[in-house]
Amino acid sequence: MADLTSALNEDNRADLVSALKSKIQSLAGQHSDVLENLSPNVRKRVEVLREIQNDCEEVQDEDDDYDDEEEHEPATLGFVEKPKNQWSLCRQYFPSKAGGVPAWLDPVNIPLGRTSVCDICEEPLQFLLQVYAPIEKETTFHRMLFVFMCPSMKCLLRDQHEQWKRHPEKPSRSVKVFRCQLPRDNPFYSRECPQYNESHPPVGSGAVLCDWCGTWKGDKICSGCRQARYCSEKHQVVSWSSGHKITCQKMKVSSYVPRPNNNGTASLESHKVESNNLWPEFEIIIEDESEYNGDMSEDNTSANSLISRNRTDETMNSLLDSFKGDDDKRSWANFQERIAKAPDQVLRYYRNSNAKPIWPISSGRPSQADIPKCNYCSGPMCCEFQILPQLLYYFGVENEVNSLDWASIVVYACEASCEATLPYKHEFAWVQLYSPSTTL
Fold it and tell me: Which residue range or ranges hold the MYND-type domain (predicted)?
């Protein structure tokens, strides 16, 4: 026991793990039959030592992850801007976009049922953003990741609480991520690169979508006019109270019947999404972080920023005052230093690079063990991209007590981008809030 006692006195994790391994091997040997021949008390001690060893290795892995995050590898940055041409956000141009309605990559086999609703309040999820991220192999010639979330902060708080239940059988999430990928030869798009003009149509049409949200399949038909379509009873009810009660009578006697167009919705000339609660629509523009000079003057940074510097400083100082521990303050300082180079960024893309997420605060960060395996191939998941809270500013979300807010949303996707029977495969999002909830 001398080696184990020495390691404990020195408080050295690496030596402790090594000593534990040595002790376990000396007790149990390399074969299971040796363990079976030990007395019950000794076997119990071996199992306890193994549990301690696993805990120490997990903590060591977690510390290694945090050390890696201090490496300032450049990432690919995403910025939002209003599209110059509305047609450029149609699905045939494979857009990266935020807000509005999704441009479904597979416009026919859209997620249905409970996959399309918040698991907490059961309201249909709202489209947050999508990122076009093809991989150089045949099955992922086109590849898109979609992020949806419930706009309720109460649900997000519950979501953040639920994710700490490591790998539950039925997770309750208010943030959901879907991955869709297609080979070059597919039923929906030409093999050739699209010509970026308004006259370039997609191949075929998509599913008819909900008249209220324009996001999910409109499988429910209004029993009155037999024309309006909805993704859920909840959207049918809110549409009725918001004006369809009147227009329904007119549609009954009208010869107009909406038909799906190539975007998978009813004709834009005669039909628009009814909801006014969708987040405003932006195109996501991609730039390399290494192009931004870290010595950029404060005047230039302020001039190029769409976010008011005064508002930013007030928000940051308020948050800093709420951080009690030094670790949170160090994380916040590091986060601020990185973001200050390009304060308008709303997204950081990491796949195929050595860059790591930058966490605004140290508490609420996942360890390696908190990230689940792929639901379909059981392989490892890698960090795909990070969504920053700056996006809420562009969405016009007010800074109020119950307003939607987050510190970071980090999306993890199957490292192999595996194939599966589902057209839209579930991926994983880790939600970090400024004030992590412990009980609800």
Answer: 210-248
